[in-house]
Structure formats: C-alpha cells, structure tokens
Amino acid sequence: MGPTLETFLGPGRPLILHLTVTGRCQARCEGCINALSFGERRSFAETWECVPERDALALARLIREAGGRPAVVAFYGGEPLLAADRMDAVRKELRARLNGEVVRFMLYTNGELLERTIEGYPELVRDLWLVSVSIDGSEAQHNRFRRGTDLHRIRKNLRVLKAFCAPQVLMWSTLREEASLRDCLGEFLRLHEAGLADYFFWHLIETDRPMADFEAFRQSYLEDLYFLFETYLSWLSRGRILPVLPVNELLFLLLSGIRRGHTGCGVELASNFDLQAGKILPCADLGEDFVLAEIEPSGEIRWQGGNGNLKTLVSYREELGCPECPADFYCGGRCPVLVKNSPERARQYCVLTRNLVMLARETLPEVKRLLSRHGLSPEDLYFPYGYLALFTDVVP
Known about the structure:
Layout: H1 5-9, E1 15-20, E2 28-29, H2 33-38, H3 52-64, E3 71-76, H4 84-98, E4 103-109, H5 114-120, H6 122-126, E5 128-134, H7 139-145, E6 146-147, H8 151-164, E7 168-175, H9 181-193, E8 199-204, H10 214-237, H11 245-256, E9 273-276, E10 279-281, E11 293-295, E12 301-303, H12 316-320, H13 328-331, H14 336-341, H15 343-373, H16 378-382
Parallel strand pairs: 1-3, 1-9, 3-4, 4-5, 5-7, 7-8
Antiparallel strand pairs: 2-6, 9-10, 10-11, 11-12
C-alpha cells in the first residue's frame, strides 16, 4: 500500500480544534446537521454556550500536548457570530496563554452577521485566517434551502469583509437532492471573479433517509461533474488552478500515489477534537455517543479513556466493501455520521463517489500534460488547495 496523507504531511499535519461557541442560529436551513444529531434546537441551544476562560484553558492544553503540530482553532455553531463576544474572549485568552506560540483561527458562518461583527469586534475579524461561508448556489437555490438567510445580504457582507482585512474566504456548499452542483459552482465563479471568495468546497448533505429518486439525481450530478472537470481543464490550459478543494485533493492523490488512510475527516484517529458544552468529542456531529473527556470549570481535562471505542465508528467499512473499492484511496469510508443515520443513503453516496473518482481518472492524462506544459507539479494542486480540504469535513 502507498503512503498516507498523514505520513506525507508529517509534523506539518495540523491540529484542528473545533470549538462550538453557541448552539443558537438565526437561520432555518433545510437538513441542519445539528437538528439531525440533537433534535429541536431549543432542546440544546442554551447548553452549548461557550465558557471563554474554561474553553481557552482547555484549548491551550491540547495545543501544548500536540507535539508542535500547527494548530487551528475553528469557531463552530450554531451561528458563532451570534456570540462574537465569547469568540473574542477565547481568542484573547488563548493568545495570552500561548505567549506567542503560533495558532490560527478559522470561522464557520452563514455570513449574515459579518458586517456587524466587523463593527463590534474588528480585532477578532483581523485575526481570522480562514472564513468558511455557507452558500448553496445562486440566489434562488441558496435562499430556498437556507431559509432565514439572504444571498444578496451575504454578498454585501463579503464585500465589506474583503475591503476591511481580506482574509481567505472558502465558499462551502451543501448539496441536496433538488439542488445543482453546477449552480453552486457558477455562484463561486462569480464571487471569485469579484474577489469575494477564494476557494470552493461542496459536499452532499447528511440526512436520515435515502434519496427518493437516486438515478435521476445521479444523472444530473454526473452532468454537473462533467462540466466541473471541463471548467477545471479550461483553467489549467491557461496555467491557472481552479480553486475547488475536493478536485485538487483527488487529482493530487491520483498523481502522487498517496492514499487518505482514514475516513474523510479522520474521526477514528482522535487526532483532532471538537469542544462542545464542556466536553471533548471526536466529532460534534455524532452527538454525545462518544465523549473523550470532560472539561472542568478550571479548564482541566479529565480524559475518559474512550479512544479505543472509536474503532467501532468505522466497522461499517467491511460491510460497505471499502477495502476493495476503487475509490477507497480517496474516500476512506467517508463519514460515520451518514452511516449511523441512513445506511441506504451511504450506499448511494458510495456510487456517487466512485463516479467522481472515475471522472478524475479519465481527466488525469490531460491534467498531467497541462501541468507539464505550465511547469506545475502535483504538489501545486495540494498546497494550498487540496490541503485546505482538511478544514472541511467529508469527501463529496
């Protein structure tokens, strides 16, 4: 077997710490992952409020115990900017505790409150390395699925953000059965041309039921993927790399012979952590079935020794036939959350992932030719593009 991403990255493999800042959210997005994992928002929102000093102390301990791995603290929710005061308090406390040690901050947001946060907490916004904004396509498609948000307003907020301090912006699209990947890509290209978005990531929604008409979606999705690869080759023919993270990661793995070596986010490795409501979890989206540690009010971490149980999270790999699957080097088993909630949908996604890998393989000879023509290497596809997929969640 070939080398894994973990061995390729070596000591440069980042430590990613997701901090749930609040469970509150002003949006009502169709298929919200928190609602799927935890039920009605009012049943958990109030218990998820971050305690800044406690959580900053725990983050500092985790970073110091990580053996020098580059650390990224990712603010998560709910909508984190509803608790920007808590975010800023964590940031200040952690910077003081680490005393100059390098840590970067990332934000996952629906983009509705960016301008308000810039006005109220400018230093917090200046300290953000990467901002992931949920945009599910053009105005009609986005506003349909992300009720309570408005794409026109989000675009305005992105203009304000880029004029203020120009952090890197990742457009994150969640694709539902009735939605179009091509529509999402089109919106990204418009935002990119306007200088408002730097990178694009998409994934397929996690839900508790299979697709109603899988074959119809598969045909539509395949057409969109063909268009995506055509666009990719058109950019590459001009010596430009289309900043679509999953495509660049997949092509890099094919070109280099490196395999992922774990599920899409590596949850079973317990090498990154989610902090939520005073607990440390391997993945907040799994619910509280797996709690690795409790965080005391003092910030002390009381580990519970449950890491061994994480191997059961990927026991489905044998049942799904992952070891023999031609897409396993890229997929790695995708996501335990989906298998937990809908094994039937997981099998449908297996087919879609194999289709994506098949198209990438078909495109590979032309990619090699164009890379050579423009003096580019496979690593030019990975850094920074494929690398940033580490800060998303699962493969499409």
